[in-house]
Amino acid sequence: MNKNINKLILVFLGLVMFAPQVVFGQSGTEKSQDEFQNKLWYTSPAKEWMEALPVGNGRLGAMVYGGVENEQIQLNEESVWAGPPIPTGKPGAWTSIEEARKLIFNGEYAKANSLVQDNVLDRRIAPRSYQTLGELNLKFNIEGTSENYRRELDIDNAIAKTTFTANGVNYVREVFSTPIDQVIVVLLTADKPNSISLDLSLGRPADFEVASLGNNKIKMWGQASHKGKHLGVKYETQLMAVPKGGKLKSVDGVISIENATSVKLLISAATDYNRHDPFKPLTENLGTRNSKDLKAANKKALKKLVADHIAEYQRLFNRVSIELGNSDVDNLPTDVRLEAVKNGADDAGLFELYFQYGRYLLISSSREGSLPANLQGIWNNHLIAPWNGDYHTNINMQMNYWPAELTNLSECHEPFFSFIESLVPSGQKTAKEIYNNDGFVVHHTTDVWHWTVPIGRVGYGMWPMGGAWATGHFMEHYRYTGDKQFLEARAYPIIKESCKFLLDWLTTDPRSGKLVSGPSTSPENKFYPPNNTDGKHVNLGMGNAMDQEIIYESFTNLLEAAKDLGIDDEFTKEVELALGKLSMPQIGSDGRLMEWSEEFDEVDAGHRHLSHLYGLYPGSQFNTQDTPYYIDAIYRSINHRLANGGGHTGWSRAWIINFYARLNDSDKAYENIKALLQKSTANNLFDYHPPFQIDGNFGGTAGIAEMLIHSHVKDDKGTVIIELLPALPSAWETGNVNGLVARGGFEVDLAWENSKLKSTTISSKAGGTCKVKLGETTIDLVLAAGEKRVLNNTLN
Predict the structure, then answer these.
(1) CA–CA–CA angle 281, 282, 286 (5° rounding)
(2) Do the beta carbons of residue 742 and residue 777 sit within 8 Å?
(3) Does the pLDDT of residue 1 top 70, yes or no?
(4) What share of the chain is helix, strand, coil (3-state, %, to 5)?
(5) Which of 233, 268, 407, 525 might form a disulfide with 403, Cβ 3.0–4.6 angstroms?
């Protein structure tokens, strides 16, 4: 056993031994606290927001601190955004773009940089942020000192719980956000009658009013803004208190409860945001909507309310189980285990928990009918969130959805698709007005107001590839599900709309005769131009590697989709012709894959973005089977970045895990998943950029799955190759995983011992053919719809 963990076990042995052996859970049934599986748990309340525990139903979120005398539950509703004005772009900018292209081709990079900055990019409007809904404050009258304290988040049931004993009374507090009844539920119980007394209030940093509604409800309402500017959505939240026993009153926005035996709290919230047309707010009365939700939830029996929530959550969560080896420290608090890993310990169980936590967060922040997960999922305690809490489409929004298909949460991908489709009208307008191009375009960021123009500084803003990257997710959904109706009705149309823009955007490089993108940045990076005399950096080039790789993927996606739909027309011929003329990334004199079309001097050799490796992951253009000549260059590029301080943000480190997994490098993949926990993970397992960004959680979950199964390569006949345990690290010597999904609609279960496959079960959802690969052995597999095949360690 690792010495660090051994010491920590001795320190906390007393805490475990003297914890209460039985607590009374949400349905009144007894549950042993010896069960630690899939739980984040702690022995003290959260001191700050980054220690609190998240619950969510896709739309409504809460962060639970677990305070004893004073509990705070921070609240979110996904559409509480400050509002206009929004960037509108600079119509007619294409004339400056044409001039900038000539300047770059002539080596006048600085002039091109300045020209685009002045004449193409609109101003960045900030703050105009995603905002906190507010806080529910619970002030308890507790006699005596609390003992046997524990707070936990059970991600098997999606319920946060706080338990402690005070003055001989065992208290239990549970919080969950139900997707069935669309309310946040807080349950307060005690094992002795008349032991619960508290005051309840709602508050917010700004822009709110509160009032009582009858004797058991209060409401808070207002309009999101930034000091009276950027007026956004109107919101209202209501709190209903339903005590058992005791006295109850509500006066001036405060509910007081005395001597209750148990209390049920229901929280509803609504805004006038119209996802279909944000500039035409909904007219439904928010109070009526909230009251309706509260009345319906309160009418339901408590056991039914809890059971429905758990059943709907587990419908998604229980599809995948994972064990990465024996862990003898599951009975230690999560923060203690994390600290041990930061000090060098190995803890397979903590990686299991981290993986499932990522799935939990996706289910909790992105469900059918909701907005997609933003930079913070749905959890944000600010009026001005970091980076406005917006949708960064130069990796962060897409990374949020990397685990969706692979980890069997395909339905959670739906909000992403709906949102990207909602950008098409704006993106078409931007394409025509800014570029004089057909099709639709999205730049590096957007938000719930659906704008798509280039903004800010050229280093991040002049990058028209966000929409094209996002359309790749539509094709991936089809590959994983085989849903041809989705392909025809949704994937093909939006991929085609993006390809229309790309065809018009591409221009011929006079130096090579190839088609290139530009002027464009390689996201957020910079370089010193040739013959640089003033020491100033620039950002814009022609034919940058990431642009070319995204365009390659977009064109190949279009042609693959067209083939499967039986489409062969003038447009597909035009795409095929352009694909053949497309410039591809080059390998530099130092053996690295080049980020730009020329070998420029780097400003930041350890930059957090590794954009030029897009074709390795999340793309599949570069792989060990089809493009082995690129693999050494890719290795050199990753190693160079890391040697110079790269991977210093959580999401960047998560990306690197997936790179190494794709390269079948188990040791490096494990080294970086461990570094993600060591350097970029808070005690509540939230990812640090810093500050908090949720994309690292999702990227890390995807990376662990990618280490265990690959399906991104096809043979020369187009058959999917499912590679088993491609990057299994020695630290996970024995384990199993059930329910991962491979492209082609195959579900895969794996078990291994002594770092070797023990058995695998492969089932097909719709029927199909695949190849199964283990090391150097490959077999063909033909399965009917619903059929399962069990294979041994030799694939027999």
Answers:
(1) 120
(2) no
(3) no
(4) 35, 25, 40
(5) 407
For the chain, the straight-line distance linking the first and the last C-alpha, in angstroms and rounded, comes to 36
Q: Is the pLDDT of residue 31 over 80?
A: no
CA distance 213 to 271: 19
Contact assessment for residue 237 and residue 134, using Cβ atoms and an 8 Å cutoff: yes
Residues 106, 243 share a domain: no
Q: How many domains does the chain have?
A: 3
Helices marked H in 688-737 — which ranges? 695-708
Q: What are phi and psi of 539, to 5 degrees?
A: -130, -20
758 and 611 together in one domain? no
Residue 15 has pLDDT above 60, yes or no: no
Alpha carbon distance 682, 697 (integer Å): 11
In CATH, what number is assigned to the domain containing residue 450?
A: 1.50.10.10
Q: 579 and 545 in one domain?
A: yes
Q: Residue 29's pLDDT band (boundaries 50, 70, 90)? A: very low
Last residue of a domain, one of 292, 317, 342: 317
**Per-residue pLDDT reduced to its tens digit, 614-637:** 999 999 999 999 999 999 999 999
Alpha carbon separation from 631 to 615, 660, 665 (Å, rounded): 11, 11, 12
CA 165 to chain centre: 37
**Torsion over CA: 728, 734, 737, 742 (sign):** positive
CB atoms under 10 Å from CB of 460, counted, come to: 22
Do residues 539 and 462 lie in contact, with contact meaning Cβ atoms separated by under 8 Å? yes
Q: Are 699 and 681 in contact (CB under 8 A)?
A: no
DSSP label at 743? T
Domain boundary among 264, 290, 317: 317
Q: Where are the alpha helices (DSSP H) in 18-167?
A: 94-105, 109-119
Quote the tokens at residue 291: 């009251």
**Which DSSP string corresponds to 322-381?**
EE-S--TTTTS-HHHHHHHHHTT---HHHHHHHHHHHHHHHHHH--TTSPPPBTTBT---
- Considering only 30-34, 75-79, 239-243, 683-687, which range has the smallest mean pLDDT? 30-34
Are the C-beta atoms of 167 and 37 separated by less than 8 Å? Answer: no
Same domain, 455 and 522: yes
Beta-carbon count within 10 A of 591 CB: 12
Q: Are strands 720-724 and 768-774 parallel, antiparallel or unpaired?
A: parallel
* Structure tokens, 109: 């990079």
* Same-domain status, 32 and 123: no
% of the chain beyond a pLDDT of 90: 93
Q: Which of 773, 772, 776, 775 lies closest to 789 in space, CA to CA?
A: 772
How many angstroms separate the CA atoms of 529 and 601, rounded?
Answer: 7
* Residue 346 within any structural domain of the chain: no
Q: Give the whole-angstrom CA distance, residue 101 versus residue 489.
A: 37
198 and 98 in one domain? Answer: no
541 CB neighbour count, 10 Å cutoff:
27
Residue type, 41: W
- Whole-angstrom Cα distance, residue 82 to residue 76? 14
Beta partners for residue 753, in sequence order: 756
Domain of 173, in residue numbers:
23-81+131-317
Q: Which of 176, 136, 174, 171 is nearest to 54 (CA)?
A: 176
Cβ neighbourhood burial of 106 (10 Å; 0-12, 13-18, 19+): exposed
Residue 296 forms part of a structural domain: yes
240 and 303 both lie in a single domain: yes
